[in-house]
């Protein structure tokens, strides 16, 4: 691959990273805290492309009287994956991944005091951790509001899920809440719901890895748009 093709690919990849970092696109790949590194990588790649082009132009005079071997044009096909990255954003991991991966719920280091006022907004992992490992002591007699997407197990039982990240989408794992009570009669996988409900001591085991899954007693459920950041990073903090 000649220097011009290398320069073009470096510039395209750098511009793609800058575009992803300056929008919410990067959240499809890495956790929110890595945004500065995504932007830095984009700047470095564009600077490298510029330096490569400058070096090539300096060397062009020395080569102009010599026969130059042209690399096959097919090498430009290497630009296609970069263009695909620019034009096609992959969807966030959803119900299929959640249904085939066991819950990744782990015991938190502690349980900070919850704010007053109702309804109390909680993340899926926060509710699950308190329900399982603190026996719901801080959740009792509280009206709770939790948002996540729907997944169904093989028996059709519904779960409210958020995928958690350690670093990037490649290591995303689900945390699940089983739903009981006033559950909508028809639920479609990947539908985002805002659930209002109350703690219940009832639990079940994940059919994939036998991990603990707490129930939530649903009083109301309404569809909501998917959030800008579909992943939840709080469960591994």
TrEMBL record:
<dbReference type="InterPro" id="IPR048447">
    <property type="entry name" value="DUF1980_C"/>
</dbReference>
<feature type="transmembrane region" description="Helical">
    <location>
        <begin position="76"/>
        <end position="99"/>
    </location>
</feature>
<protein>
    <submittedName>
        <fullName>TIGR03943 family protein</fullName>
    </submittedName>
</protein>
<dbReference type="InterPro" id="IPR015402">
    <property type="entry name" value="DUF1980"/>
</dbReference>
<keyword id="KW-1133">Transmembrane helix</keyword>
<dbReference type="InterPro" id="IPR052955">
    <property type="entry name" value="UPF0703_membrane_permease"/>
</dbReference>
<dbReference type="Pfam" id="PF09323">
    <property type="entry name" value="DUF1980"/>
</dbReference>
<feature type="domain" description="DUF1980">
    <location>
        <begin position="8"/>
        <end position="90"/>
    </location>
</feature>
<keyword id="KW-0812">Transmembrane</keyword>
<feature type="domain" description="DUF1980">
    <location>
        <begin position="132"/>
        <end position="231"/>
    </location>
</feature>
<feature type="transmembrane region" description="Helical">
    <location>
        <begin position="36"/>
        <end position="55"/>
    </location>
</feature>
<dbReference type="Pfam" id="PF21537">
    <property type="entry name" value="DUF1980_C"/>
</dbReference>
<feature type="region of interest" description="Disordered">
    <location>
        <begin position="203"/>
        <end position="237"/>
    </location>
</feature>
<dbReference type="InterPro" id="IPR048493">
    <property type="entry name" value="DUF1980_N"/>
</dbReference>
<keyword id="KW-0472">Membrane</keyword>
């Amino acid at each position: 691959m000649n220097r011009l093709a290398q320069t073009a690919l470096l510039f395209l990849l750098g511009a793609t990273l800058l575009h992803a970092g300056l929008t919410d696109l990067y959240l499809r790949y890495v956790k929110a805290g890595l945004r500065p590194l995504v932007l830095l990588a984009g700047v470095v790649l564009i600077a490298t492309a510029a330096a490569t082009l400058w070096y090539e132009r300096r060397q062009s005079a020395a080569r102009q009287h010599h026969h130059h071997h042209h690399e096959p044009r097919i090498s430009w096909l290497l630009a296609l994956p970069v263009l695909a990255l620019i034009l096609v954003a992959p969807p966030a991991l959803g119900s299929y991944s959640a249904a085939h991966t066991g819950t990744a719920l782990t015991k938190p280091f502690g349980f900070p005091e919850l704010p007053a006022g109702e309804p109390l907004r909680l993340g899926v992992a926060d509710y699950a951790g308190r329900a399982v490992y603190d026996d719901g002591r801080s959740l009792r007699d509280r009206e709770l509001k939790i948002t996540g997407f729907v997944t169904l197990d093989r028996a059709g039982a519904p779960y409210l899920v958020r995928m958690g990240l350690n670093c990037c989408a490649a290591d995303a794992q689900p945390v699940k809440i089983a739903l009981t009570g006033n559950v909508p009669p028809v639920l479609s996988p990947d539908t985002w719901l805002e659930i209002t409900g109350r703690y219940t001591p009832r639990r079940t085991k994940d059919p994939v890895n036998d991990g603990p899954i707490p129930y939530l007693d649903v009083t109301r459920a309404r569809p909501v748009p998917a959030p800008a950041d579909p992943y939840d990073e709080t469960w591994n903090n």
